[in-house]
């Protein structure tokens, strides 16, 4: 699977949008971009995934660039409960390779 | 719908002892995964089952780790004997099938002293 690069940490003000970037310059045509998050002392939680088109669900939006070499996860109105480690994963046929992720801290 | 259940939540053992973790996946999920997460790192896949067969165990340290899913539902992961470097959170995940969204349990935190 392709490797991803994410910032180590980010801060966001409560109520503002949190934009988490991810670079995946070696992604292959059949590989999806997945996002998970892990709140302290819990298992990873699925957020969203996409192949080429932008995706939106009740939790977040995923914006994938046209060349698919990078993506951005958007939490439209961050709350304190969104404080977590966010993992961007490029997934081929099966297995998922987690990196170290981005530690997002939402501040009051 | 019930999520992935894991037990125990915490376990403390001394090195060279043995330990076992249990996982009950979401009902109807054919694929089950065990991950190891060392502090400060992302989860690393140890083994993947499709029903009761092993699909991928390439990263499982087979000299000390073993796992089984005899009836294609529950699974156990065993470490014997444990080493200090096995201190980690052991996560179980399940999915409808290979390539589907994986849902994770809360994990078992193992401390080896």
Q: How do the strands and helices of this protein lay out in sequence?
A:
The complex is a heterodimer of chains A (108) and B (113).
Chain A: E1 9-13, E2 18-23, E3 32-38, E4 45-50, E5 55-56, E6 61-64, E7 70-75, E8 84-91, E9 102-107
Chain B: E1 5-7, E2 10-13, E3 19-24, E4 31-37, E5 44-50, E6 53-56, E7 65-68, E8 75-79, E9 88-95, E10 103-104, E11 108-112
Parallel strand pairs in B: 2-11
Antiparallel strand pairs in B: 1-3, 3-8, 4-5, 4-9, 5-6, 7-8, 9-10, 9-11
Overview of this protein structure:
The complex is a heterodimer of chains A (108) and B (113). Chain A has no helices and 9 strands. Chain A has 108 residues and is mainly beta. In chain A, 32% of the residues are buried. The model of chain A has no long low-confidence stretch (mean pLDDT 94). Chain B has no helices and 11 strands. Chain B is globular. Chain B starts with a strand and ends with a strand. In chain B, 36% of the residues are buried. Chains A and B meet through strand 4 of A and strand 5 and strand 10 of B.
Radius of gyration of chain B: 13 Å
How big is the Rg of chain A?
13 Å
The dominant shape of chain B is globular
- Strand element count of chain B: 11
Average pLDDT of chain B: 95
Class by helix and strand content of chain B?
Answer: mainly beta
Shape of chain A: globular
Rounded to the nearest angstrom, the distance between the terminal CA atoms of chain A is 37 Å
Report the helical percentage of chain A.
Answer: under 10%
Count every helix of chain B, treating DSSP H or I runs of 4 or more residues as helices. 0
Beta-strand portion of chain B reads over 45%
Q: Unreliable stretches of chain B, pLDDT < 50, 5 or more residues?
A: none
**Main β-sheet of chain A, in a few words?**
5 strands, mixed
So how many helices of chain A?
Answer: 0
Instruction: Please state the structural category of chain A.
Output: mainly beta
> What are the segments of chain A in which pLDDT stays under 50 over at least 5 consecutive residues?
none
